């Protein structure tokens, strides 16, 4: 889940690669992307890398780059990366090795610098190791590549050397050449620190942890993985973290910490699945299977081995497939299914033999010798034990040689070949005698270590007693400083709380202030919109917009302060008389909201009475609406639509004159649609009036009403049906 897998640096690199090259590629960033997001890097290269002809000289290549307006050095670098990506573990293309070889052959003609030649040798070695499992040839290529760049201080050369040392260590580990592998790992660690990059340091520590794990030095292995985690930058690098989780699962498995082992293995499987790295999903499945196998839960182990086998078959990874067949053979043997066991083991044996993977074949031969011995097929057991002994002796694998000789001796004895059995036993005894000396020496070293630890503990206790007083004084000083610090923090928090309270009050006041008309300080149009939106318990039944027409300019005539006081008095009187919510829109223009339905004439009479008692030397005009406007209650009109409709009614009332007080209201028929109140609202309402969809009521003469029109629609014929209502 922590994947997704596209970080800012990788996005930047992909963006950078899609433009004309203006500066050299950042080799550190490129290498990290190669390891963490190889698919993203491959997609970026695919967008910029043109179709390549077959070059026979560097001059042809340079000319081609000039024609494509691409830097020849950057184009060469892209070809190198593409060839390497084709041989990456994630790549599932059937022709990946063919394409990689073609690109390598092309690079033969254009590689001139030490870096280019070294990179080409690495690609050749990678091809030999990945496609043919020819690790001896691969190591030879890599060693030549190292010689070309090992003395350079150039960053690109150091990054390449880092990769070369890593691959060499891994290949020597595969071949069980542990001493040489450790030499390369030490060089790898040194280079990572020279590069001063957290990712490379963490990766080097991780591989060292893997090495010591292979040597059964779990303590050292765990310490290196602990160091690696320190440099993983809080889980930023998903692929690196997944590899560490996978290896920790193996360590916990060997320490028999089953719960931690399963948790780490499942975390690794999930992470690799999100990354699309099926090779390591298979590895995670295999580790889970082995955790169950070590607990004797063979049927669960078989299920996970079969899952891993399906992935390896799909990927065409023959060595991985053979390893899974080997593990399945062992699991079937443990549950007593000898036939299935031998079928899987012999298939694995064929693959290991064809790929010349003797470092795996020795274990496969040993278990076949064990299984066939259990069935009494002593000749077959002897054959495989003899093969295993030859491989173990050639690779100096003493433990495996001891097991092979034991099986060989048993088989000779059962076959009646007692002289051969005796000779094998002599070799076995000689081997055991050689093994005793290191064991004795190891025991002496352990005794010396214990003695030194006891002396160290004694000295530490003596020093600790002397240091207690100093520690006490220091703790007292630290305590005083902590108390002072806490006091200052408390003061700061109190100040922050007061500021927050003050700002909260100011914000609340500003929020309330924006709802008020600025001159009178009474609720305005925004307050009406808010109240309209919150009308739950008492829905609005009547809205009226009244104009004190002769007082509309009184704010200029008598000044805003005097006019504001007059409007306040008028609004308060209206509120008390009608028990309504009044709002001031502007001087002389009031909006009223009532939760009861009131007839227009009655309302106008009441308003006239109130205004007469409060500076009422003015004519009154009123636009009034009874809510809801539409018969369909499911249709909700906005506060703005109601207010605009009131404005139109008031505008119409004002055209009737000032000889008396006038009102205008409207009522829509039941089948009227909400489109009437959409923009342009004035035009749509007027068309609806003409068509009889809206009925107008007034205490004046309807024929005298002059309906308002928006300026942009003054020339529109309201009887034109092309304009939709």
From TrEMBL:
Record protein name field:
Tetratricopeptide domain protein
SUPFAM superfamilies xref list: TPR-like (SSF48452)
Where is it localised?
Cytoplasm
Can you tell which superkingdom this protein's organism belongs to?
A: Bacteria
A Pfam family cross-referenced in the UniProt record is: TPR_12
GO CC annotation, single: cytoplasm
Please provide the record's keywords in A-Z order.
Coiled coil, Cytoplasm, Membrane, Repeat, Signal, TPR repeat, Transmembrane, Transmembrane helix
Species of origin reads Shewanella halifaxensis (strain HAW-EB4)
Q: Where are the transmembrane segments?
A: 474-494
Q: Which residues form a coiled coil?
A: 384-411, 444-478
Q: Where is the signal peptide?
A: 1-22
Q: Which InterPro entries match?
A: Bac_ResReg_Asp_Phosphatase (IPR051476), TPR-like_helical_dom_sf (IPR011990), TPR_rpt (IPR019734)
Give the record's family classification: Belongs to the Rap family.
UniProt key word Cytoplasm: yes
Report the PANTHER family cross-referenced here: TETRATRICOPEPTIDE REPEAT PROTEIN 29
